[in-house]
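quick q for whoever's on today - can somebody do inverse folding on this one?? i tried earlier but teh output was garbage lol. tokens:
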């Protein structure tokens, strides 16, 4: 067998080996998803508090995650529907720990966040499938997001 044929065979075998290693990891990953098995995570999540809605049908869970030395903590809020057990994530996120954050249910369908520095807000969104409207309430800390009152004069 000449040198070119040996190189071709080596490259072919190496490609096949890499493919089957990749394919094996994919099969293991899909199997874990189907069986509901969680693998190790680089991030740790700490639950801080739970706030039940007035009727008790929904729970707002406040916590923060830490993904290592090169990132800051991130505070997040998720909402759990008690009847179905479904958890809705991504409503609200702050850079750092929550410190003075207030989470208040103003009704069974409305959740309000207040008393946090607006500059630390990372994301704020609604998930209408959750059945909860999420609001940010202005406070002394968040005065800068208040519009100036119109005094009636033309600009």
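ok took a stab at it. sequence:
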């Amino acid at each position: 067998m000449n040198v070119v044929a040996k190189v071709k065979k080596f490259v072919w075998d190496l490609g096949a080996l890499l493919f089957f290693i990749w394919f094996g990891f994919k099969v293991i990953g899909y199997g874990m998803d189907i069986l509901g098995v969680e693998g190790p995570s680089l991030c740790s999540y700490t639950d801080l508090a739970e706030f039940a809605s007035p009727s008790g049908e929904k729970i707002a869970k406040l916590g923060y995650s830490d993904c290592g030395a090169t990132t800051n903590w991130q505070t997040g809020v998720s909402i759990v529907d008690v009847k179905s057990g479904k958890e809705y994530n991504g409503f609200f996120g702050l850079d750092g720990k929550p410190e003075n954050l207030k989470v208040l249910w103003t009704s069974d369908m409305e959740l309000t966040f207040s008393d946090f520095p607006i500059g630390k807000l990372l994301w704020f969104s609604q998930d209408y499938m959750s059945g909860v409207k999420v609001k940010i309430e202005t406070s002394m800390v968040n005065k800068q997001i208040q519009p100036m009152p119109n005094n009636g004069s033309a600009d």
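fwiw The two ends are 87 Å apart (CA to CA). also The mean pLDDT is 83. so keep that in mind when u check it
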